[in-house]
Structures are given as structure tokens and as C-alpha cells.
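Lecture 7 notes: from sequence to structure.

We start with a single chain of 184 residues. Read the sequence below before looking at the structure.
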Amino acid sequence: MAKERIILGIDPGTTIMGFGIIKVVNNKMIFLQLNELNLVKYKDHYLKLKLIYERTNELIETFHPDEIAIEAPFFGKNVQSMLKLGRAQGVAMSAGLNKEIPITEYLPKKIKMSITGNGNASKEQVARMLQGMFKLKTIPKNLDATDGLAAAVCHFYNSGKLTGEKNYSGWSSFIKQNENRLKK
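Now the structure, written as C-alpha cells:
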């Protein structure tokens, strides 16, 4: 009997949330979808968070992923941008946590390294590698979608390995691994 699982990869963002979905059958990847949620036209940050949560829920209801891989926020110079990115990641994660889907965070360098062999690869290099890997006719104009797909592929390559990344299988594991964030 074939062993199957579905991995949803998410590149969170409050301007564009990219996502990609793969199916793994007998340890072989099959491309299912690559797309984005474009939030450019919305000005209200809280509305954007609501839409990210709803879209992630729709993806979960449609594809029934067994696992979610999400790009972790990177430390940039703009604190406000990082805060917004963290919120976007949080609402996407909460959609999965509410369904008790295991979630793994990957740093952008880890994702790039898994796809291209170079942790400093450009978004374009990652997209071209994925295009060849899955024989995609075209790649999207906005590369956030391929970044989401890259997170799923990275998770496939790192499944079962001790990666040093954070893994959550539900709210209780999230809280246990983040006790330092709780107010006492």
C-alpha cells in the first residue's frame, strides 16, 4: 500500500502570502498547487490577518495537509515589518494548530539551501530550481508562491531529521516550546 502525505508550505506576508502544496507518495514528490494570496489592495492590517487566517483554513479544508512547513520570520532592520510578518506567520500557524496539524518553521537560508544547495540563493534561483524539479511551464511573477512551495519541499527533504527547527503539533506543544513568551 502506498504511503501518502500532503505538505502545505507557506511563505507568510501581509502584502503577499505565498503557498505551495505537494503530495508525497512512496517518498516521491508530486506537485499539487502553487499560488498566492495578494493583500496589496487592503489597507487595514487586521483585515489582512483575518484574510490570511481564512485562506489558510480554506487550503486546509480543501487539501487536508498532514503537515505544514512555514518560513520563519528573518531578523531585519525594520522592527515594524518584522512585527507584521510575525503576526502573519502567527495567524497562518493558528489555522493549522486549530486542526492539530504538525507545523515546522524553517529559516529562509535553510529553505534556500535545501532547494539550491546555497543558503544565499536568490528567489529567482529557487524558483528556477522548483520549475525544473516539477516541470512547471511557467513560474509566477511574484515569487512568494514559489517560496511557499520551497518551504514544502524543504520539509520533505528534512522530514525525520533533527533539523534544529521548531516543530509544533498543537497548542500545547507551541506553549511548551515558547514558555519564555508567556506572562506570569
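The chain is about 45% helix and 20% strand. Keep this in mind for problem set 3.
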